[in-house]
């Protein structure tokens, strides 16, 4: 996987899937191009219009808590966000991120602030904060997860290889 780089958008703890993909818009779950326009809007109104392709979501503890719907990580990826970096993730959300091909990195995010420019090297397990000239290390993802991410998610992986042999 290539090095990811973009602007950091910082959120706090306990960002739920309802804040990521507003539950009041559940009727749009079969219209993802429309639902993506509302990504994170209950946590930060207008977020979709502010982000650029490659940007990075940075959060505190328990990102993605709540329902298990995979729409939440899917629309984050569709919006152009290249990765989510958090102190911890809700387990199902974390698994859904990998399955849809959205890198999810667990690391202490205290030194990443809103507006910082950062680069993520998935292979070497580093995040470089270009704004503050800092490098953070995280344990590289297990080989299985890396293979799935490199193919763009679980479904593309299975389509390419015809099975889930990892």
Outline the structure in words:
- By secondary structure, the protein is α/β, with parallel strands linked by helices.
- 28% of the residues lie in helices and 19% in strands.
- The protein has helices spanning 17-20, 32-35, 47-50, 71-78, 91-100, 143-150, 154-161, and strands at residues 4-10, 56-59, 83-86, 104-106, 117-121, 126-129, 134-137.
- Strands 4-3-2-1-5-6-7 form a seven-stranded mixed beta sheet.
- The model has no long low-confidence stretch (mean pLDDT 94).
Walk me through the topology.
Layout: E1 4-10, H1 17-20, H2 32-35, H3 47-50, E2 56-59, H4 71-78, E3 83-86, H5 91-100, E4 104-106, E5 117-121, E6 126-129, E7 134-137, H6 143-150, H7 154-161
Name the helicity range. Answer: 25-40%
Principal-axis shape: globular
Rg over C-alpha atoms, rounded to the nearest angstrom: 15 Å
Major sheet size, sense and barrel closure:
7 strands, mixed
Structural class, judged by helices and strands? alpha/beta
Distance between the termini: 17 Å
Q: Uncertain regions: pLDDT < 50 for 5+ in a row? A: none
The helix/strand series, from N terminus to C terminus, equals EHHHEHEHEEEEHH
Spatial order of strands in the largest sheet: 4-3-2-1-5-6-7
Number of helices: 7
What value does the average pLDDT take? Answer: 94
Percentage of β-strand residues: 15-25%
Count the strands? 7
